[in-house]
Amino acid sequence: MKSITLNNLLILSLVFSPSLVSSIQCSKDAVLKRYQINEFASLGEIESDTPPSKTTEKWWINPCEENNEANVNIPSDCYHDDVSCGLVEVLLPGKEALTTQVINFSKNLKYVAEEFDDKLLITLKGTKWGSNTFDAEFEFSCDPKLKSDTLVETSWQRGLIKLYVNGPSGCLRDKRDNDNDDNNNNKDKDDDNNRKDSDKKNGNSEKNKRNGGISWFSWLLIYSLMFTLIYLMVVSYMNTRGGSFDDFRTEFVTRSTQLLTSLPEFTKEVINKVLGRNDSQRGGYSAV
């Protein structure tokens, strides 16, 4: 008896929208790039007794776009753009195996990658299977002794298919590679922080220069000159009130000149007072 594939039960989700991704680029994903998953593809199967038949569940798993030359051939019932594909075959005594179920998970589906209890979890969301919608959750556990991934267990729940895989895909890449990635990221962050600190210091320096450019003594001198000028103008105006502008100007120039000529003597007198000197006593004595 020829195998009958129920492809008419499968409707792939190929509708593109901003929430979908074009493929899983593991090397660019913050979680997936830390693991060896982009180096392996697998075709695992699990057999179970379902008297009078035997049922075999097969799963093709190749989530990473980078692994486009997988060393495991994709089953003929799967599509070329699948990242995972499940088949269920039933074998009756004396009969040829009959494929009863095919479910495909396209690379165009939205995915979530996360780490939990030293395991790598990848969830593919929302594939159509007939009138139903299913998610697939792959749990990768590290087993460095294995040369390829091994499908350990599957479970079908309402709207969710869980697959448990052991092998190198669940192992972290060479620690040095991850350290280099982390160091590069930290270096970029440090450079950004250093630039911000430098800009902040330069800004504070400029601000300090602007604020500290005029000392308190300079302000005192400016105010003294301003008040002196106002005083001279008021006195000159009071003495020449009712006169012409020329009279005011002459009075102002005269008083300003007198102030300037007396200023050195006034300054000297103030200094003598501060230092305790007395210019009125200039007498001396001579030794006999």
Automatic annotation (TrEMBL):
> Could you state a single Gene Ontology molecular function term?
phosphatidylinositol-3-phosphate binding
Report the InterPro entries cross-referenced here: Autophagy-rel_prot_27, MRH_dom
Is this entry keyworded DNA repair?
Answer: no
List each coiled-coil range. Answer: none
Bilayer-crossing regions: 216-235
Annotated Gene Ontology cellular components are:
clathrin-coated vesicle; cytoplasmic vesicle membrane; Golgi membrane; mitochondrial membrane; phagophore assembly site; trans-Golgi network; vacuolar membrane
Extent of the signal sequence: 1-23
Q: Does the keyword Magnesium apply?
A: no
Keywords carried by this UniProt record: Autophagy, Cytoplasmic vesicle, Disulfide bond, Golgi apparatus, Membrane, Mitochondrion, Signal, Transmembrane, Transmembrane helix
The membrane topology of this protein is: Single-pass type I membrane protein; Single-pass membrane protein
Q: Show where the MRH domain sits.
A: 24-173
Query: Which compartment or compartments is the protein found in?
Result: Cytoplasmic vesicle membrane; Golgi apparatus membrane; Mitochondrion membrane
List this protein's GO terms for biological process. cytoplasm to vacuole targeting by the Cvt pathway; pexophagy; protein localization to phagophore assembly site; vesicle organization
> Which domain of life does this protein belong to?
Eukaryota
Q: Where is this region: Disordered?
A: 174-208
Q: Name one Pfam family in it.
A: ATG27
Q: Which family does it belong to?
A: Belongs to the ATG27 family.
Protein name as annotated: Autophagy-related protein 27
Query: What are the top taxonomic ranks of the organism?
Result: Eukaryota, Fungi, Dikarya, Ascomycota, Saccharomycotina
